Amino acid sequence: MKKIFIGLTILIIFIIGIIYSALFTKTGNNFVASYIENKVNDEQKDVELKVNDFTLTFNTINFNATISDDSNINIAGDLEIFKKRVDLKYDININELSKLENLINQKLNGPFATTGTFKGDANFAVIKGTSNVAQSQTSYDLKLADFEAKNINFLIENAKIEKLLHLLNQKSFAAGNLTLKGDIKDANVSSLDGKITLNISKGKLNNQVINKDFNQNISSPIYFKSDIIADLTPNKASIKSDLITSIVDVFTNKTEVFIDNGKILTDYKLDVKNLQKLEGIIGTKLYGNFITSGNIAMNNGIIKVDGNSNIFDSLTKYSVKLVDLNPEYVKFNVANAKIDKLLHILNEPVYADGILNIDGNITNAKPEVLAGVIKTQIVNGKVINPVANTVFKQNLKKEITFKTDTTTTLIPNQAITSSKITTTLANLDIKKAVFTFKDAAFNTDYLLDIPSLSNLYDVTATKMRGGVKINGNMQSKNKSLLLTGNSKLLGGVLDFNLKNDDLHADIKNIQIKELTHMLYYPDVFDSTTALTLDYNMLMKKGKLKGNLVKGHFLPNNFSTLLNQFAKFDITREVYETVDIDTNIDKLVLSSIINMKSKNTQIDVTKSILDLEKSTIDAVINTKIKKTQFTLNVKGNTSKPKISLDSKDLISNQVNKQIDKNKEKIKEKLNKVLKGKLGDDGAEEVLKNFKSLF
Hints:
About 20% of the residues lie in helices and about 55% in strands. By secondary structure, the protein is an alpha+beta fold. Among the domains are: about 1-95, Nuclear Transport Factor 2, Chain: A (Roll); about 500-645, no CATH class; about 660-690, no CATH class. It has a 36-stranded antiparallel β-sheet. Residues about 1-20 and about 690-693 have low confidence and may be disordered.
């Protein structure tokens, strides 16, 4: 037993001797210094650590090292290892933190320097120091109990935001001054007590960096400042913050952060005093102001937002739920929004006013399982004629009112809409319009009902009467538009299709008499149509070609004039086909018309009809049996002036009368002239007289 005790004693003394030799002698110190150097330098090649001095005794320590010849770490003072007591001074000066990335496993940039003291023992210790981090004036005071932070005081004054971003390996998105002050009396979460304040002044965004990284086009400078106050209580931080910028102000009166579970509850208010300043960010010029406020709850990846707004002078409420930043549901109600305010905000001329109501309930906002209903209503809508006339180059005089009721049902990848639009001009009914989100394709039916064409006069500048209904479909995909339509019109059928800017229409069996009646033109001719129209909507030019079938003239000034001079009733003539070839240039129609019956042939080689001015200028070459003459039609289409070149008609009538009374005329001539003309003299006189016509 005695031998065992003596052996253990010797072993313990030997171990203590080894430890003493390894730690507290010059040889041991050199060994430790070399070990530290090798450990750091062998594991990476970016920096080189050189320990200039490492001296450790029972009571003191001195450590001085150089990193890559331009950074220094110096720690010196009393160190009583066995009593766990320290009284140290430290001085750390790193010229470039990026060189330490492999050592600290984090990319930092720029210089860092701090000096201070570390005093105390295992039960209580104090760390005090200063730093110039991010060109600030920084001081800190940490009190440790059992080597855990118990009380923390710090002040980072006038740190440069751009330097902080560079330090944290972030791009210089902004510049300014930041002051952060903390007074934490108890850093234990369960008994947390303290206060933290943050102030940002002279803040300015770096437009050049933001535009490049976020694909923006911000040109105007954006300034900002902020004040944040956080009160720390057991397991919770209560925060009040103000962020004032040159484009939007953001306020939170009470934000609660629950530290144990990460739950966050906050109110908010966003105030945009001038929406025009957002143009560089959103890419659209807006006008007016915008305010919204509400509450946000965040917990375990779930975010709920409930808010309200006065947008468009409305009473708007909304509710949104996000799960892992993906929308789950969206609910909103826009009540009594003003259409004139909407147009003003959207930078559009205020050509209408009225009330807009929208109610949306998107029960599932994920595109693959999209579900919901959106109802839109416009009431008391009215066009503001002076503005509309200027913007759309119209001449509106009568009041135009409108209202709409629209319901949109959302299903996966599609929005299906039914809508009814009622106006004093026309009504539009859409039973099923389908928009596909994946390829932005749109397909819809429609029924356009114009109960009274006379109401369109201000728009078309053409006097019309009657009504018309057109139904068809519209498709839009890959920037291509196809519009088709069909109408039973004026006893016939109108079929048309519009491919982008090109309109093609077939006009069949329409009654010309009903058409001229609709257009307030005189009843001149009646037939059925077989016409084709090709027209470019962009160029406003086109061609109308085809035939009028089985036509005949109606009693009118034209037929009366012919009957009077030619003793011919043209209304009895039937024209099997009338060839029409018309060039259209905006509202001016230039036509060539050829028509032939059993006894007549009529050629219109020059006809100009101006629908905007309601004027006509036509030259009608007419042949009735063997008699030819020309009619000129000119003036207002409702009552044009018709003039007749009557030379042929008069010549024909004179010749008929001479031939009929030839013998009587010759007898009178011979009697008057007493035979001086000879036997053939009277005949020659009549011949010469007829040649005058």
